[in-house]
Automatic annotation (TrEMBL):
PPIases accelerate the folding of proteins. It catalyzes the cis-trans isomerization of proline imidic peptide bonds in oligopeptides. It catalyses: [protein]-peptidylproline (omega=180) = [protein]-peptidylproline (omega=0). Belongs to the cyclophilin-type PPIase family. InterPro entries: Cyclophilin-like_dom_sf, Cyclophilin-type_PPIase, Cyclophilin-type_PPIase_CS, Cyclophilin-type_PPIase_dom, E_coli_cyclophilin_A-like. This is Peptidyl-prolyl cis-trans isomerase. Pfam families: Pro_isomerase. Residues 25-179 form the PPIase cyclophilin-type domain. Keywords: Isomerase, Rotamase, Signal. Residues 1-18 form the signal peptide. The keyword Signal applies. Its EC number is 5.2.1.8. GO terms for molecular function: peptidyl-prolyl cis-trans isomerase activity.
Length: 181
C-alpha cells in the first residue's frame, strides 16, 4: 500500500509541474529537457522560439568546463554567431536554482541580454543564483533524460579558438531538436 501511495504521489507531483519537453540529438547522444513555464515563462517562451524555428539545429556546444557547465546554442561549427531574436528580461529571481542538470539562459554582463544561448549545469552552481549573486542567471528547466550525455561533454578535450576558450576540440553538434508531444 505504502509503495503504491508513494508511486501515485510521485506521478501526481510530476504531472502537476509538467512542462514542455524538448529532445536534443547531438553527435555524442541525446538528452531531453523539461521547461518550467510556470516559474520562467519569458525564458521558456524564448527558448521555444529557437526550437520551433529550427535554428538550434547545426549549432554546437561551444563552451564546456568540467565541474561547471556546458554552453551551447549560439554558434555554428565555424564559430560564427547565429542570428538572434531580441534580448529577454532576466527571470533569475523566479526561485529556480542553478543545480546539477538545470538549464539556464546565458547572458552578458547586462542582466537583460539573454537571447539564444543556454547552459546546462554539470554541478550545483549556487553562486549563479539570484539570492547569491544578483541579478543571477535564469534557470528555466532541467534535463530529465540523458544527463550522462551532458556529463560526457565534460570529458572531451577543449582548446581555444580565437577569443573563445573551452571549445571542444571535436565539435559537439546539435543535429536535431524536437518538441515532444
Amino acid at each position: 500500500m505504502w509503495k503504491f501511495a508513494t508511486a501515485s504521489l510521485a506521478l501526481v507531483s510530476s504531472l502537476a509541474f509538467a512542462g514542455p519537453k524538448v529532445e536534443f540529438e547531438t553527435t555524442i547522444g541525446a538528452f531531453t529537457v523539461e521547461l518550467n513555464q510556470e516559474k520562467a515563462p519569458v525564458s521558456a517562451e524564448n527558448f521555444l522560439k529557437y526550437v520551433e524555428d529550427g535554428s538550434y539545429e547545426g549549432t554546437i556546444f561551444h563552451r564546456v568546463i568540467p565541474g561547471f557547465m556546458a554552453q551551447g546554442g549560439g554558434f555554428d561549427t565555424n564559430m560564427n554567431q547565429k542570428q538572434t531574436y531580441a534580448p529577454i528580461k532576466n527571470e533569475a529571481s523566479n526561485g529556480l536554482k542553478n543545480q546539477t542538470a538545470s538549464i539556464a539562459m546565458a547572458r552578458t554582463n547586462d542582466p537583460n541580454s539573454a537571447t539564444r544561448q543556454f547552459f546546462i549545469n554539470l554541478v550545483d552552481n549556487n553562486f549563479l543564483d539570484y539570492d547569491q549573486r544578483p541579478p543571477g542567471y535564469a534557470v528555466f528547466g532541467q534535463v530529465i533524460q540523458g544527463f550522462d550525455v551532458i556529463q560526457a561533454m565534460a570529458n572531451k578535450p577543449t582548446h581555444t579558438v580565437g577569443r573563445y576558450a573551452d571549445v571542444p576540440v571535436e565539435a559537439i553538434i546539435i543535429k536535431k531538436v524536437t518538441l515532444q508531444p
